[in-house]
């Protein structure tokens, strides 16, 4: 089974992205969060086509920590329905995956 995942979420502002990223890393729920932006999102919400500038956060974590990561993001997020999509990290350099493991909350 894959041990690590990369979860993506978007935020309305860089400040919100930084707050979420900092909280996840400080609590050892994420080893690293990269903040990319600004992206333009076009989506349907409540039967309307909307557009917004958003900041993309890429969260590196352990699969077993996903429930806690998701709860922390929801607690701090301004969106009613924040994006949270996790993709398995199938492979990576041994040294990077070891570093990920060392940075995260013990199982």
Spell out the blueprint of helices and strands:
Blueprint: E1 4-11, H1 14-26, E2 32-45, E3 48-62, H2 66-76, E4 85-88, H3 94-103
Antiparallel strand pairs: 1-3, 1-4, 2-3
Helix pairs in contact: 1-2
Please describe what this structure looks like:
The chain has helices spanning 14-26, 66-76, 94-103; strands at 4-11, 32-45, 48-62, 85-88. It is α+β, with helices and mostly antiparallel strands. It has a single domain (4-103), classed as Alpha-Beta Plaits, CATH 3.30.70.120. The protein has a 4-stranded antiparallel beta sheet. α1 (14-26) runs antiparallel to α2 (66-76). The protein is elongated and about 45 Å long.
Notable characteristics:
4-stranded antiparallel β-sheet, 107 residues, elongated, alpha+beta, Alpha-Beta Plaits
Q: How do the strands of the widest beta sheet line up side by side?
A: 2-3-1-4
Question: What is the level 1 CATH name?
Answer: Alpha Beta
Rg calculated over all Cα atoms = 14 Å
Question: How many beta strands in the DSSP annotation?
Answer: 4
CATH second-level architecture: 2-Layer Sandwich
- Percent of residues in helices: 25-40%
CATH topology: Alpha-Beta Plaits
Unreliable stretches (pLDDT < 50, length at least 5) are none
Biggest beta sheet attributes: 4 strands, antiparallel
Quaternary class? single chain
Mean pLDDT level = 95
In short:
The protein is α+β, with helices and mostly antiparallel strands and 107 residues long. The protein has helices at 14-26, 66-76, 94-103, and strands spanning 4-11, 32-45, 48-62, 85-88.
């Amino acid at each position: 089974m894959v041990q690590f995942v990369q979860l993506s979420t978007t935020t309305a502002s860089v400040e919100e992205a930084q707050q979420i990223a900092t909280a996840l890393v400080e609590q050892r729920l994420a080893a690293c969060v990269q903040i990319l932006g600004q992206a333009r999102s076009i989506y349907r919400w409540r039967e309307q086509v909307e557009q917004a500038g958003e900041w993309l956060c890429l969260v590196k974590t352990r699969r077993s920590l996903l429930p806690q990561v998701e709860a922390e993001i929801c607690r701090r997020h301004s969106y009613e329905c924040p994006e949270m999509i996790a993709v398995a990290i199938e492979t990576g350099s041994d040294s990077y995956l070891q570093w990920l493991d060392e940075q995260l909350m013990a199982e």
